[in-house]
Amino acid sequence: MAAGFSLAAAGQVVAQTDPLPSWNQGAAKTAILDFVAKVTREGGPDYVKPAERIATFDNDGTLWAEQPAYFQLLFAFDEVKRLAPQHPEWKGKEPYRSVLAGDMKGLAASGEKGLLQLVAATHGGMTTEAFEKSVADWLATARHPTKKRPYSELVYQPQLELLAYLRANGFKTFIVSGGGVEFMRVFAEKVYGIPPEQVVGSSGVVKFAIGPDGKPQLLKQAKVEFIDDGPGKPVGINRFIGRRPILAFGNSDGDLQMLQYTVGGSGPRLALIVHHTDAEREWAYDRKSSIGKLDKALDEGRAKGWTIVDMKTDWKEVFPPARP
Amino acid sequence: MAAGFSLAAAGQVVAQTDPLPSWNQGAAKTAILDFVAKVTREGGPDYVKPAERIATFDNDGTLWAEQPAYFQLLFAFDEVKRLAPQHPEWKGKEPYRSVLAGDMKGLAASGEKGLLQLVAATHGGMTTEAFEKSVADWLATARHPTKKRPYSELVYQPQLELLAYLRANGFKTFIVSGGGVEFMRVFAEKVYGIPPEQVVGSSGVVKFAIGPDGKPQLLKQAKVEFIDDGPGKPVGINRFIGRRPILAFGNSDGDLQMLQYTVGGSGPRLALIVHHTDAEREWAYDRKSSIGKLDKALDEGRAKGWTIVDMKTDWKEVFPPARP
User: Mind telling me which CDD domains this protein's record contains (chains A, B) (predicted)?
Assistant: First the structure.
């Protein structure tokens, strides 16, 4: 936008070709449009150089749904079922037995340790390429238990528009998620337009080795390396991006430190939170949810004037239309 | 380049406006130009989509010099001297005493453990922002002990041209170095045109905390987190970039696995090694050097037809002209 181009004129242009058609008019949409207008206005007091227009998005519950459980966990369950014929011992061994029997109570009893075992069994002991293929195969065939759609269609249409709008305005968009980095990279480019090198996430230990065929390979180990959640998010941003975001978007207490870190810098900053308020089109949950718990971040966001996006009222559409 | 545009014509254009003027005509330059021509030729058998044109460069000895010691280590020595007034106990304590006395024999006696102590004392116990400032201040004032130039001028002019040439042809250029990621990011954008998010390196543990001023901060700890060297390089590439490079450039055995991993993929690949053969303009060292040892990678590179760049004969210029 050329210096001197008036705000009113910019407003008209926006009104004529709405870059965020799935966002209803309201405080959240206005906050986004105003923020992008001011940081891109050359010569203006809030101008930010393109190289510094870093925007970070949580994934689960912010870019795609996360109920009734994180989709990556549902992938692990499906993998246990797929791999069970090669592991006859699983039938009598927790937590595998519970998963195979569909016994969610039994699974809950195995606690976090049980879940980590499941993740280790389905995410480790293979090359990075074999893992990538298993995720791609699952995404191509699996359906969400209640929505009956492919998981990659349970992304939020308003966020797809926001990502594209930010990029069209010189932003570099990143995912910063507690999800596994190698899991997300399988679909992030195709679904969100975010290339692998702009995905930050949790990771397991990986070892380099020369394989039996004489070719170099990377082997995923059954051991956690880095958890990109809570205070791990600003640490991950520092390690992978090396620049403080000017815009961050989350939906749970696991995003609180990323949002604090983002607004803690000087100059214009925008912190946003998706509040899941739509039991009809999506799900309604916040303070008491075991998945995507939003409690402290909601209080701090309200107290500090962060933009709380009310899914029910702010989003005209939630999911994209089903693919033909 | 449009499909059907003839190779001969492309050769003429290159000759007319040489994108690599500091490279002498020879096998190395030809290998680079041919590789870039074929991966960018739309419709050709070796065409690579821009998103997959990942090029990774080692830093020490590949993009800038590394003698008489890694520059980051010289920074640590200078920092010990700068901080000594606040640490009167250092005068009687190794390895600090040796550094302060300029006693390189005494320092050598403290071994790798001593060097790690020095790095911990000068790279930890501060915020990431304070560290960034200390590196920037040092780069602005320090001079190389024998070349008498700022360290950031001891970068290789032919490599600056190569980085720019690759980017002009749709490549995304990354640093993948054993050096500290936060150290390199201070100058990588200005000197190499490589933004912070495209720098992969070794790192220390960083903790998130709310500071005494109520502001969030990232505190560097005196503990190593990840060593991006040797087999750590393909691991770092997988973790940070998530895509196998099609071109990699190194200069030492610490780059061997990165080069193996790069050529191990399908499709066109280019592996390059700087061989330091120029005792007059730079330094001459390889198999027996304690810094930047090039032995196994030289053998494997020659055996497998990787491009070995002979600094003395392949580079018309080594360093850029001194800044006025």
Answer: HAD_like
**A71-83 helix and A111-123 helix, angle to the nearest 10 degrees:** 60
Q: Which residue of B has its CA nearest to A207?
A: B235
What domains are there in chain A, each with its CATH number? 7-68+150-314 (3.40.50.1000), 71-141 (no CATH)
Task: State the sign of the Cα–Cα–Cα–Cα dihedral B118, B139, B61, A196.
Answer: positive
- The complex scores an ipTM of 0.91
Tens of each residue's pLDDT in chain B, 324 residues: 344 444 444 445 555 689 999 999 999 999 999 999 999 999 999 999 999 999 999 999 999 999 999 999 999 999 999 999 999 999 999 999 999 999 888 888 888 888 888 988 899 999 999 999 999 999 999 999 999 999 999 999 999 999 999 999 999 999 999 999 999 999 999 999 999 999 999 999 999 999 888 999 999 998 889 999 999 999 999 999 999 999 999 999 999 999 999 999 999 999 999 999 999 999 999 999 999 999 999 999 999 999 999 999 999 999 999 876
> Rounded distance, CA B42 to CA B45, Å?
9
Written as six digits, the tokens of A26 are: 């309201």
Residue type, A295: D
> Closest partner residue to A216 among B174, B207, B261, by Cβ?
B261
Considering only CB atoms, which residues of chain A are within 8 Å of chain B?
Answer: 51, 54, 128, 172, 174, 181-182, 185, 189, 195-199, 203, 206-208, 210, 215-218, 231-232, 234-235, 238-243, 257, 260-261, 264
Pick B264's closest partner by Cβ from A215, A231, A257.
A215
